[in-house]
Write a structure and sequence with these properties.
The chain is an alpha+beta fold. 31% of the residues lie in helices and 26% in strands. It has helices spanning 3-12, 24-32, 101-121, 145-155, 207-220, 268-281, 304-317, 332-335, 361-379; strands at residues 38-44, 47-55, 64-70, 90-92, 95-97, 128-134, 161-164, 176-178, 180-181, 183-192, 196-197, 234-242, 249-250, 253-262, 287-295, 298-299, 322-324, 341-344, 358-360. A hairpin with a 2-residue loop joins β4 (90-92) and β5 (95-97).
Length: 380
């Protein structure tokens, strides 16, 4: 059994349902401490964040490269639907099954073994290498990397390059590399009306009727056209609720939850202004509204890390990766504003968050080889 596969299985066997780390980070600490890594813990409420670093940055112009990952996982769903119990990883037809093997304990294991191997082969390496982990990526993410980034900003110190291990690959390992991410913005809207009997429309104000034309225009809006790396911003309605359940009673209010995935051409402030102008256009004035920005869009300009990632993927995996900003959000959104180059490369994402989450066993060692080669290209 390879070192990466063995560590992936050990990590997957720990039921680290967010925000519980379940000892994953301690296990990694026991491996990295003997190799001279400095460990710094950032404990926030129930969340465990830890940073492992080795070497010196900015000495003779040498760079710093940190890996970024998470040890928490999403709930399993019905365990009786799994081929193997979700926290008892096992193999079938060349694939490793278990909650978190793809998102992202397999990548974390590949990162750890890549760091171990690099230090063993280059004990006096230039620059700084690091690994930053959180147990609060899959949950609310309010006490995870965002808190660490705040502290790094306060200190005025952060890495030059940050490689995120989120499962970016689509069909084959390395076919997709994220060079940024779209933003994510939620809006909760409650429009008030006057409840009444359906037989007497003159005595009521049906908020569903008033919101209908607004909703039609909202979902057909062209917010922007995107660019070469970002798809156009869009809005998806996730939830609508109104009524008492009685067929002859109109609702007193209607509630709406919508999510925007936005590119740099439409920052959160611009979307908010256009949304509220649209309400005014349709004569909707009696309402309550809440906005929540989960992350602003970001992208990293081409730099040494992008060059290293693309070079490694092409040489080792034989893939010419698609460089894009697709997918959901990631913790890279907290590191990019600090000023470091952020790139995402990880395992295949087709089964993440599903029953029977799995990853090809061979991809674990292949990802390790790419991660090791990226460290070599950036630091040596």
């Amino acid at each position: 059994m390879s070192r990466v596969l063995e560590l992936t299985r050990e990590l997957t066997a720990r039921p680290s349902l967010t925000p519980d780390d379940a000892g994953c980070q301690r296990l990694i600490s026991e491996r990295l401490l003997p190799l001279g890594f400095t460990t710094e813990w950032f404990l926030c409420a129930e969340v465990s964040n830890v940073l492992f670093t080795r070497g010196q940055r900015k000495v003779n112009g040498s760079p710093s490269l940190w890996f970024l990952g998470h040890t928490d996982v999403v709930p399993t769903g019905p365990e009786d639907l799994w081929t193997f119990l979700p926290f008892h990883p096992d193999e079938k037809d060349g694939e490793l099954y278990g909650r978190g093997v793809a998102d992202m304990k397999g990548a974390v294991a590949a990162m750890v073994v890549a760091l171990e191997t690099f230090v063993q082969q280059h004990p006096d390496h230039p620059g700084e290498i690091g690994l930053l982990l959180t147990s609060d990526e899959e949950g609310e993410a309010v006490d995870g990397i965002v808190r660490v980034a705040e502290e790094l900003k306060r200190r005025g110190t952060w890495p030059d390059h940050c490689l995120v291990g989120e499962p970016s690959s689509q069909d084959k390992l390395g076919d997709t590399v994220r060079v940024g991410r779209r933003g994510s913005l939620y809006v909760r809207l409650k429009v008030h009306g006057i409840q009444g009997h359906t037989a007497f429309p003159e005595n009521l104000d049906n908020p569903v009727h008033r919101i209908a034309p607004f909703l039609d225009e909202l979902v057909t809006q062209e917010w922007d056209t995107g660019d070469d790396e970002f798809p156009a911003s869009h809005c998806q309605v996730a939830y609508v609720k109104a009524g008492t359940g009685a067929g002859n009673v109109t609702p007193a209010n209607v509630e709406l939850l919508a999510n925007f995935r936005n590119c740099p051409g439409s920052p959160a402030t611009a979307i908010r202004t256009r949304f509220e102008n649209l309400l005014e256009k349709h004569g909707i004035s009696d309402y309550e509204i809440e906005w929540e920005v989960m992350g602003e869009p970001f992208r990293s300009s081409p730099g040494k890390l992008r060059e290293a990632v693309v070079g490694s993927v092409e040489e080792i995996l034989g893939e010419s990766p698609d460089l894009n900003t697709g997918g959901g959000t990631s913790d890279g959104r907290y590191m990019a504003p600090l000023g470091c180059e952020v790139i995402e490369l990880g395992l295949i994402n087709s089964t993440i968050h599903q029953v029977d989450e799995r990853t090809p066993v061979a991809d674990l060692d292949r990802l390790f080889a790419v991660y090791y080669d990226i460290i070599r290209r950036v630091l040596l």
